[in-house]
Here is the input.
Amino acid sequence: MTSKCLLVPFVLAALTLSTTFSLQPDQQQKVLLVSFDGFRWDYLYKVPTPHFHYVMKHGVHVKQVTNIFITKTYPNHYTLVTGLFAESHGIVANDMFDPILNKSFSLDHMNIYDSDFWEEATPIWITNQRAGHASGAAMWPGADVRIHKSFPTHYMPYNESVSFEDRVAKIIEWFTSKEPINLGLLYWEDPDDMGHHLGPESPLMGPVISDIDNKLGYLIQRLKKAKLWNNLNLIITSDHGMTQCSEERVIELDQYLDKDHYTLIDQSPVAAILPKEGKFDEVYEALAHAHPNLTVYKKEEIPGRWHYRYNSRIQPIIAVADKGWYILQNKSEDFMLGNHGYDNALAEMHPIFLAQGPAFRKNFTKEAMNSTDLYPLLCHLLNITTMPHNGSFRNVQDLLSSVTPSQIPYTQSTTLLLGSVRPEEYEQEEAYPYFIGVALGSIIVLVFSVIFIKHLIRSQIPALQDMQAEISQPLLQA
Ligand SMILES: *[C@@H]1O[C@H](CO)[C@@H](O)[C@H](O)[C@H]1NC(C)=O
Ligand SMILES: *[C@@H]1O[C@H](CO)[C@@H](O)[C@H](O)[C@H]1NC(C)=O
Ligand SMILES: *[C@@H]1O[C@H](CO)[C@@H](O)[C@H](O)[C@H]1NC(C)=O
Ligand SMILES: *[C@@H]1O[C@H](CO)[C@@H](O)[C@H](O)[C@H]1NC(C)=O
Ligand SMILES: *[C@@H]1O[C@H](CO)[C@@H](O)[C@H](O)[C@H]1NC(C)=O
Ligand SMILES: *[C@@H]1O[C@H](CO)[C@@H](O)[C@H](O)[C@H]1NC(C)=O
Ligand SMILES: *[C@@H]1O[C@H](CO)[C@@H](O)[C@H](O)[C@H]1NC(C)=O
Ligand SMILES: *[C@@H]1O[C@H](CO)[C@@H](O)[C@H](O)[C@H]1NC(C)=O
Ligand SMILES: [Zn+2]
Here is the structure.
């Protein structure tokens, strides 16, 4: 009789405690950020992708992620880890010339290791390490470059021949080592490589996407085997999408411009043009009305929504091709059936975004986000202070289970404690009420457990008393 009466508050207290714990935002979080280069947002629906859908069902999915202009690999990967637009982080293209440094940067020649190009920003792995944590990067673009005199705690020097399995093995090793990382970064070159080669509309892209889905399946399996799956936040994203090109849609600069009047710093679909001394007007006029599918901007006229103006590495003239159009110097140059780099407002340029783990809601779909918002989200999860950035934590905090206002009514204790806090104050105020919640819950559970167990031992179950005697025997003999 008495034990039943005790059971009710016990269960209530336990429930309060567990919900309070699951809502606690500042638990030490582990994060693995994965980028499948060039994975367009709608590839998820091209062929069955059971592993991606498994993550979506157990986590969150954002349908439209607006990445940054230009929609190229290096600019966007640096945005993911800094939260800055290209003009602010300084990696404005895969191929650049900095007139102040008088230096070039080129992905084509892997001439990307000059620290000067990277130091207008501080990537998250450095901030994470300065806060006393450890980071590990498996081929993440730029993570093997010395930036502000440091590298990730662990990293693999870039080598595209290293298999996905070997990269995953390193990530697992770092997460499970004696001094484990709390932030892992994993990069894979496809489906970008094959997307360029085949064109995204090719039926042969089906098997390429299936292969990526299998790779994700492999990663999930390894994480489960390493007992990381339940306590790690896995974020799967990419840098940009891909659109179909065609030899019918080529813009040849040689048809409009004298080769001797300019230097072509970056080519397609955003041509970065540096006119020779005294040739600016001539080059601009020749190009401005050259082709209906080419929009030409003087640097100071580049649309504000691109946030692509205030950096010396952005050239005096840029010429942007319409979707699916290709800029070449002349037709004897290399041409690819798929490309990206176009206006970031185009859906076909958009990447995927999925996440699952203890910090994230389950089976939740969000319509849209900006890729700059990932950085403050990561900093929140890692419990580190953000550097100045262009994102907004508030715009993505609904992805998280702990700071979701709609979940709070489910728990009595937190409703009571947070009742007077306005939604916009959650960010600053969250820690204090949760601590009180946890403390109260713990005390209640502890008190009731002691009473309950004492009660059981004394009167209800004699067998337990026998067991106690047995347990204590070896101790007496010792
Ligand atoms: C978050 O970081 C602060 C110091 O910046 C530290 O006092 C606090 O304990 C950390 N929280 C967790 C859950 O690690
Ligand atoms: C820029 O560097 C090149 C060599 O890469 C050199 O020839 C040129 O003189 C330099 N220009 C200036 C202004 O220093
Ligand atoms: C790149 O990785 C491949 C496969 O692991 C290896 O055979 C090759 O030696 C590596 N190249 C360099 C430069 O380390
Ligand atoms: C290319 O230009 C033509 C003529 O202005 C236009 O009708 C067409 O829509 C453009 N193509 C794209 C993909 O914008
Ligand atoms: C086409 O452009 C390339 C690279 O700029 C150049 O080497 C080649 O001579 C050009 N071909 C013709 C036919 O002009
Ligand atoms: C996930 O959510 C959708 C609608 O948002 C719902 O139809 C579906 O049943 C949910 N699935 C699970 C496994 O909860
Ligand atoms: C993206 O950022 C812009 C401002 O930079 C903002 O107006 C817009 O609402 C943001 N989009 C989302 C989905 O949060
Ligand atoms: C982006 O953030 C940087 C760093 O805070 C700032 O200097 C820049 O003005 C911001 N850009 C925009 C468009 O707000
Ligand atoms: Zn890319």
The chain has 14 helices and 18 strands.
